[in-house]
Amino acid sequence: LRSCSPGRARRTNASRRACLITRFGDIYDHRRLDAETFLKTSISDMEMVHRIIYIAAVESFHAAKMAYRQFKLRVTETLSLGHTGPESLEDTVLDYIVDHEDLYDVQASVNEVIRSMNINPKISFPPEMDFIVISTLIRELCRVAFSMQTLVPPLDIAFGIDGELFSETKYHRSFDSDFTAALVAYHVWPALMENDIVIVKGEAVTKR
């Protein structure tokens, strides 16, 4: 029996994880605020601005995860034909994806996110506005979400719904929240999770 050595992706997992968590924080600190600025030129309702950005984040992760699964399937089918080791096929596939993330068609994911947002019943926007104005935010979120799928274990965002019980471990309250309210009125930014454990808190608004 041959013992399989860990691939490069697994050996660099900790450093890549730290870098991706930092990138996720930078998107929250900078790209998110840039997107707010663009949206406020057409939308005066800040709640709607926040909802749009939150849904953009959720849809970006969804699109990137779907793209990753399809990409991984194609790579696995191709590499399995001539795989001999010494690494396992799974590690060989992971190494290939990490080394060739530039092959990820991020624009296709951006287009998919915008299509989904255009038909989302929870958000409304002026007819003259196009979500392409926040495409930079969406692109960065898709890229980081795709890369997070190459981690072992992968990182993902928390599932959030309006009216859920506010969790101090999962979210920060926005400054305009009612700090005595127990329920989430809407979300501003998703929490980042690893195996159901909160790695980075999100942001939510609580109201009575």
From TrEMBL:
<dbReference type="GO" id="GO:0005741">
    <property type="term" value="C:mitochondrial outer membrane"/>
</dbReference>
<keyword id="KW-0175">Coiled coil</keyword>
<comment type="similarity">
    <text>Belongs to the MIEAP family.</text>
</comment>
<keyword id="KW-0446">Lipid-binding</keyword>
<keyword id="KW-0472">Membrane</keyword>
<dbReference type="GO" id="GO:0005759">
    <property type="term" value="C:mitochondrial matrix"/>
</dbReference>
<dbReference type="Pfam" id="PF16026">
    <property type="entry name" value="MIEAP"/>
</dbReference>
<keyword id="KW-0963">Cytoplasm</keyword>
<keyword id="KW-1000">Mitochondrion outer membrane</keyword>
<dbReference type="GO" id="GO:0035694">
    <property type="term" value="P:mitochondrial protein catabolic process"/>
</dbReference>
<dbReference type="GO" id="GO:0008289">
    <property type="term" value="F:lipid binding"/>
</dbReference>
<dbReference type="InterPro" id="IPR026169">
    <property type="entry name" value="MIEAP"/>
</dbReference>
<dbReference type="InterPro" id="IPR031981">
    <property type="entry name" value="MIEAP_C"/>
</dbReference>
<keyword id="KW-0496">Mitochondrion</keyword>
<protein>
    <recommendedName>
        <fullName>Mitochondria-eating protein</fullName>
    </recommendedName>
</protein>
<feature type="domain" description="Mitochondria-eating protein C-terminal">
    <location>
        <begin position="16"/>
        <end position="206"/>
    </location>
</feature>
<dbReference type="GO" id="GO:0035695">
    <property type="term" value="P:mitophagy by internal vacuole formation"/>
</dbReference>
